[in-house]
Design brief:
Layout lengths: L8 H13 L3 H29 L10 H36 L7 H9 L1 H8 L1 H12 L9 H5 L19 H30 L12 H32 L12 H35 L6 H14 L15 H13 L1 H15 L8 H24 L1 H7 L3 H11 L3 H17 L5 H27 L14 H31 L19 H14 L24 H39 L6 H8 L7 H13 L1 H9 L9 H18 L6 H28 L10 H4 L1
């Protein structure tokens, strides 16, 4: 393990001055990423509060007002202050390295573009800051002195800010609009800088034909921003004038509320591609590195990116099919909305072809890239349905739209951000993260995303209206499933944050500038060459060369079996062996555990009737025998499989020590689920028996798996511990 980083007070002061005055493109890129991460956590907390509220059909956790405030600010925070800043940060850090530039074209303007964002976020979310501050001060200060603070309230007008709701008196709405306007200025400044840098600062050896795919996507994205964001700024100023100076741009007697919708969505739909195209650029850049193949159809992916940029300005009115727009106009927008799916499909086919017959490696970026393709396919197909006028009229106001939209903004955009963080982490920090934790975190993130937003699609298919704080009780089951998925997403994000921070201080320093073995497939791109030079200068790490290389446009191995069955068979055999050993261990452990529970029944501290309650949870009759059968089935399937999945991250080997740790963790759930009101000494005895019975289960489970030769902890290779 490498020496950990340590800082003193003088170092902190020096760092504060450095980071607040820097014009270095890499440092500004990290500032963007840090800011976007903070905004993502803030907006993510809003999302968790929304999903927690929807666990029950009635508004018995938050009020309807609070719910409306949450989904208003969740949407604006995530779209404006999370996604674009993170992609701008990635672009700031890596784009000059990729094109051989010394820095961004306008370094000081680059710094200004970033430092406009923190005050814009503070303005936009001033309502909750003032409200919380006022509530705290009210404990010691008379409320009369806090009237200014308490007058602010988070807007509850929806993230689209449609008039006349956005014309309602609330001083915080003015600050929200000012914050959005300021963020638009910052984004436009950044876009101009990217365009200028790509056009004028490229190395002489880099032309349009060999410009990397991520830079192409940032160029098209920045071009969209230059045309879209000034319009948003104008529309926001008009709304501010209506609110404060008596103009009638969006009033019934003036331009009308529909004018806002036209202006908003003329920005809003290109905004979808502003946050989508950088993600596809990262996909096209990262995926080939982990499948050992050159990106298939480079030119066509570039053409499709340009086509999306152009068509994105011709589809805005498909958000307005239910507003009574002229049928002939609606038909034209339906045609363009369907047509824009074609360049997106080109990207998907090229990504899949890139993987074909490649040397696909199991790594966190691989899991995230391949999963993103799958989720994006579902999101894209559902989008085509919504582009059809009769279908959209039915589903426009339902959760179907929420599911479709979030499969895009969650199913590929954050996933590619995580993939980029894992791919470039050694380059940024000079250290390696915990790869096994990264694989588990990535898998959990994908499962949580699919579970949440596919469930929302199902709710929309059942025509449950969106935006409501309450809903009919028959939808509660699916809402609970969606909330469970959302919390899986939240847990996975915390795992990623822990891995990034812990590895920065404790991760082992990299000993090569080619941690992903890119030289072996001739994909050692310019940013890694820069990193190689830096390692040699600063740490004396000599460049390395692979034992053998192959061009990335040829198959991974000439003798690779072509049969899909022959590729899946060994994996299926391993899974079957592990599952079989787990089932046997679970059966043996559950039988041993049952003996301990019978002793608890004899002592009067455990009630067998709880097994009958267990049966009713899955719709079976309240029968003790059926409940115990279900208990036995879970002990043979769910808990062993979870143990086999999580065992590598528990202390000790995959034997008795790990089994005891695992059993201790799951005992808490059993204690809560089977609690029947015991108190005093009876409660203490009940808890003791719960712990003892689970320890016996854990020993039986782990011991049987070990005896049968089931899954063992992988040996820690040098590469994995780097």
């Amino acid at each position: 393990m490498g020496r950990s980083r340590q800082f003193g007070l003088a170092d902190v002061k020096a760092a504060a001055v450095r980071w607040t005055t820097t014009t270095n493109h890499r440092e500004i890129g990290l500032l963007y990423i840090a800011f976007g991460t903070v905004a993502a956590i803030w907006g993510g907390i809003d999302a968790m509060m929304i999903r927690t509220h929807l666990l029950t059909p009635s508004a018995n956790l938050w009020t309807e007002q609070t719910y409306n405030e949450l989904f208003t600010m969740h949407g604006l925070t995530m779209l404006i202050f999370f996604v674009a800043p993170v992609f701008f940060g990635i672009g700031n850090y890596f784009l000059p390295l990729l094109i051989g530039a010394d820095d961004m074209a306008f370094p000081r303007l680059n710094a200004i573009g970033f430092w406009l964002l923190p005050p814009s976020l503070l303005l936009a979310r001033l309502g909750i800051v003032a409200e919380v501050t006022g509530s705290i001060l009210a404990v010691v200060v008379p409320r009369d002195f806090l009237s200014v603070l308490l007058a602010f309230q988070e807007p509850a007008i929806g993230w689209t800010m449609y008039p006349p709701l956005s014309l309602a008196p609330n001083p915080q709405t003015n600050f929200l609009l000012l914050g959005l306007h300021l963020s638009g200025i910052a984004t436009t400044i950044g876009a101009i800088n990217f365009i200028t840098t790509i056009i004028y600062e490229r190395d002489e050896s880099i032309g349009w034909a060999n410009l990397d795919i991520f830079s192409w996507n940032m160029l098209v994205t920045s071009s969209i921003i230059v045309f879209a964001f000034p319009l948003l700024g104008t529309a926001v100023l008009m709304l501010l004038f209506d609110r404060n100076f008596g103009t009638t741009f969006y009033a019934i007697e003036g331009g009308g509320p529909l004018l806002w919708q036209h202006l908003f969505w003329f920005w809003g739909h290109p905004e979808v591609y502003i946050i989508f195209l950088p993600a596809t650029g990262l996909m096209s850049l990262i995926l080939p590195k982990f499948v050992g193949r050159k990106l298939f159809g480079f030119k066509f992916i570039v053409y499709s990116t340009i086509a999306i940029g152009v068509l994105s300005f011709g589809v805005w009115a498909h958000h307005m099919f239910t507003t009574g727009v002229d049928p002939r106009v609606r038909a034209s927008f339906m045609a363009t909305s369907i047509a824009i799916a074609v360049p997106s499909a080109i990207k998907v086919f090229n990504w899949i072809t890139t993987m074909w017959n490649g040397d696909v490696r199991l790594a966190a970026p691989t899991i995230l890239c391949i999963s993103s393709i799958g989720l994006f396919i579902v999101a894209g197909v559902t989008g085509i349905f919504l582009a059809v006028i009769p279908v959209d009229i039915i589903y426009h106001g339902t959760y179907y739209v929420v599911g479709h939209f979030h499969l895009i903004v969650m199913g590929i955009i954050p996933l590619m951000m995580f993939a980029a963080s894992y791919y470039w982490y050694p380059l940024i920090t000079g250290r390696m993260y915990d790869r096994r934790l990264a694989i588990f975190q990535s898998s959990l993130l994908v499962v949580g995303s699919a579970l949440t937003f596919l469930t929302l699609l199902a709710l929309g298919y059942l025509e449950l209206p969106r935006r409501y704080a309450t809903y009919p009780a028959e939808y509660s089951g699916l809402q609970i499933v969606a909330t469970v998925g959302a919390f899986l997403i939240g847990i996975s994000v915390l795992m990623w944050l822990y891995n990034m921070i812990w590895s920065y201080f404790q991760g082992k320093p990299v000993e090569t500038a080619d941690p992903w073995e890119l030289k072996a497939t001739e994909q050692f791109t310019p940013e890694w060459r820069w990193f190689e030079d830096r390692l040699e200068r600063k740490r004396g790490v000599a460049p390395t060369e692979p034992e053998e290389t192959r061009p990335s446009y040829v198959p991974a191995r000439e003798d690779r079996p072509l049969s899909i069955y022959s590729r899946i068979k060994p994996v299926a055999r391993t899974v079957a062996n592990d599952a079989g050993a787990g089932a046997a261990g679970g059966l043996f452990g559950t039988v041993l555990m049952s003996g301990m529970l019978l002793l608890a029944v004899a002592l009067g501290v455990f009630d067998l009737a709880t097994f009958a309650d267990l049966a009713t949870l899955v719709g079976l009759p309240a029968n003790i025998g059926l409940g115990y059968a279900l208990f036995l089935f879970a002990g043979m399937t769910v808990w062993p499989l979870l143990f086999l999945s999580l065992g590598e991250y528990l202390p000790g080997e995959l034997t008795f020590v790990t089994g005891l740790w695992y059993a201790t963790v799951i005992a808490s759930g059993f204690a809560i689920a089977f609690y029947t009101g015991q108190t005093g000494l009876e409660l203490v005895t009940y808890l003791i028996f719960v712990i003892l019975s689970h320890w016996i289960y854990g020993l039986g489970l782990a011991g049987t798996i070990t005896y049968l030769g089931g899954r063992q902890r992988r040996p820690s290779t040098e590469a994995e511990n780097e």
